[in-house]
Every structure is written in structure tokens, then in C-alpha cells.
Specification:
By secondary structure, the protein is mostly beta strands. The protein has no helices and eleven strands.
Amino acid sequence: QVQLVESGGGLVQPGGSLRLSCAASGSIFSTYAMGWYRQAPGKQRELVARVTSGGRINYADPVKGRFTISRDNAKNTVTLQMNSLKPEDTAVYYCNLDGSTVDGGRRIYWGQGTQVTVSS
């Protein structure tokens, strides 16, 4: 099993910045993607950003140009730098790990979530 621990959430004014971090521990896959999803009140969970083990990155349209995802394979961490935050970014942010096993299996893990609130 894998454990994902998020940190960095909080309250920030519109236009401000926050940095979210996620550390993975336990069973580490040879190849795995890591990313961030978010869920706002009354909304479905949605992709924010994702990065594969090879460094391929995908961003959701609402955050392009404002958010940056990065990955440190040596530390098994993924970071989301969020700039120019808007009230619409308010949500619980979840770290995600999507791993591939040697025998062709797939395992998905989620962090506990961290609250991001953008309000004046």
C-alpha cells in the first residue's frame, strides 16, 4: 500500500499564492503518475494537474498559466504552486498516485485532502 500526505492548504486572498506538497510513502511503484484533483462544494471532483514518471504534464484549462506542478522522484514528492488564485479555486485538493505494477496491474491512491480557500 501507499500513503499520501498533503500539506500547504489554507486561506488566501484573491490574487495570492499557495504551494501544496504531497509526500508518498510505503510501496513505491517503478512507474507512476502523480497529480492533484480538487472538489468544490456541490461540484464533482476534477483534475487540476498531473505529471507522469517520464515528466509529461497535463493541466486543466482553468488553471493553465497560473498553476505549476513539479515532481521530485528522489524524494517521492509532488508540488503544486498556485499563483493568481481566484475564488473559483476554493476546494478541497487531493493528491493522487496512479501506479503501474510489473505484471501489468494498476493501483490508484488518494490523499486525505487539504482545504484551499480563496476569499477576501
